[in-house]
Amino acid sequence: MPRLSAVLAATLIVLMGIFPGAAAGSAATQSFRNPVNPSADPSLMYHDGDYYVATTRGDRIGIWKSPSLATLLSAPEQVVWRDSDPSRDTQMWAPAFRHVGSRWYVYYTASDGVDANHRMYVLESAGDDPMGPYTFKAKIADFGEYAIDGEPITHNGQQYFVWAGPGRGMGGPAQLYIARMSNPWTVTGGRVAIPADGGCTEVREGPTPLYRNGRTFLTYSTCDTGKPDYQLWMKSVADGADPMVAANWRQHPGPVFSRNDATGVWGPGHHSFFRSPDGTEDWIAYHGKNTSTYTYDFRTTRVQKFTWKADGTPDFGRPLAAGATQDLPSGDPGAATSVINDTDPEVSYSGAWQSGSGCGNQCFWSDDHWSGEAGASATVTFTGTRAALLSVRDRGNGIAAISIDGGPEQRVDYYSAIRVGEQLNYLSPVLPPGRHTLRVRVTGEKNPASGSTVISMDRIEVY
Fold it and tell me: Residue numbers for the site described as Important for catalytic activity, responsible for pKa modulation of the active site Glu and correct orientation of both the proton donor and substrate (predicted)?
């Protein structure tokens, strides 16, 4: 397609944040769409020419690296840590980066498989590379009880550690705590509980710092990450005030980032912040779902730019639709990426397929194609080195056979007990630059839990 004018492109970006069906065709190379990673609890940063993201992986610490946000979804995971100690080798959650001197530190939560035994740990890099290698450094902030989601903050030049732990008379991570740090892997002295509102009683977790004009904002998640109302709230402490005095923390009323039913984003939270490559823009990375069902599955990493209000507080806006086309961060070099919708001429269909907009905001541009007829196929013609398929998974979906350039087929199960859209169902291998064909064949088969053999075609990201 011809490149859109700047004014028209900006208009479409705004519209697609509200209506995923506001436009069609390939997007410009200076844009991207969410998700940027298929996992949850992101710590995302830009450093020395590359983006890095670490997310919850369960049995390991993994990091993805890409020179452009547009290609982060297609980047390979590099596993930087597995643990042979059975007291901390599972339920590994919420890694968070910090750079101190010439070393990188990754803070994370792990257990022996029993949730109540979660404690916090820190890895240290061998050199000045965020990809490691890493070695185990220490257990951190162990006060003899459940503790998760810890990371350092800096206020008035002093380092502190903040985390989530049990509330007074409440179960689960319902209280935030803070303690001073003497070095990147050690807290010193006692802890202080920071009372935190949240619109619910379930959790106060994922405390993350944000800085502006000497003021430290502590943003945190509430209301259980499996629920659609998982959301962000915020406290702040003024320049010069002691953060170890609970009363010095100002509670900001109401959620600062929450579900957006109009764009099909539920449970936005457990986040991090990063600056654009040129340092002029502020961005938030968070996980969200495009199902309102209570589930811990299908949380994917999304990012969007935020601004600041006249009173000096952040304005995070509302979560954009997963497929909303956004401008890349300022200074991002971009990449030769594009997007193909299921209705675009690059997709041809053979056999019986249906199409429509009944899937609404669970689909890219509010439409998709689907078929349950054995032998029906969809062929995508694209120019690039890689392609990703994102579409609906549902309890009535079956098994597809996917091939590239007439090569061997890979079987992919599109079934899910929960209906959810724009899920990464397939990522092709890296291909030689040039013209390629990707074929999706309906096998007519399904796993025993599924009610039918339907396969959906929706959104194709091309790299």
Answer: 149
